[in-house]
């Protein structure tokens, strides 16, 4: 059964000015249920992530500042959010949603978090609307509990996963791959194990050909026993922050390639949704729902 982490606090603690792009977290499950892809049985509400798992990834000093809401003005401004207790709680819920989704993926092959993909959060900083790095926390959870020994993080959000790259720069058990628009946020990049820096305006064929040339070799080289997939839909031509030019069809073909590789190699995969900032929220929701539907067709 396809299992999906969803909690109403993924959206409601946010200041009103930030809620439009976050509405997708509420609309995606509604759309999937409307289309008959899922029922309420597919959804689970995560609890709060335990501090011990957060501290495997984030420095204690930084975590204490988040908990106590004592980030400096510069640190808070870098996150893009006014810091609040409810916002920190939201991030803890998202991290736990990804941890619990990894456990479902180990059982069923694939599992989702409606939110997550907070890949700009580094070991001691928050940035770009990311405070805690959910897939990094879940990776360290798996490694610490000996549930995985070789992890591949496939980050296909349009922005580089700079926080993820920094966190795992010296960890031989986690391979970080980021395919992102070269001339886009974050403007100070970190070094992933493999960075695919994409030119502005890249279209369907060039993008898909690059992934077909790259991803199969990664599975052969790394032989992962767990995959994290960040499936941002800010690669679309309609996205106001993306700078790439993909169609909805190409975005879905991208998802299909990742899922087919994981399925063929019998590697569990956890999916976090990442970015999506098209002016028309229907396009955002449709693109994300395509990711769920593609996984459901391949696995179930």
UniProtKB/TrEMBL annotation:
Residue span(s) of domain Histone deacetylase: 23-280
InterPro entries from the UniProt entry: HDAC_classIV (IPR044150), HDACs (IPR000286), His_deacetylse_dom (IPR023801), His_deacetylse_dom_sf (IPR037138), Ureohydrolase_dom_sf (IPR023696)
Keyword Membrane attributed: no
Biological processes, Gene Ontology terms: epigenetic regulation of gene expression
Family: Belongs to the histone deacetylase family.
PANTHER family for the chain: HISTONE DEACETYLASE 12, HISTONE DEACETYLASE HDAC1-RELATED
UniProt protein name: Deacetylase
Species per Swiss-Prot/TrEMBL record: Pelobium manganitolerans
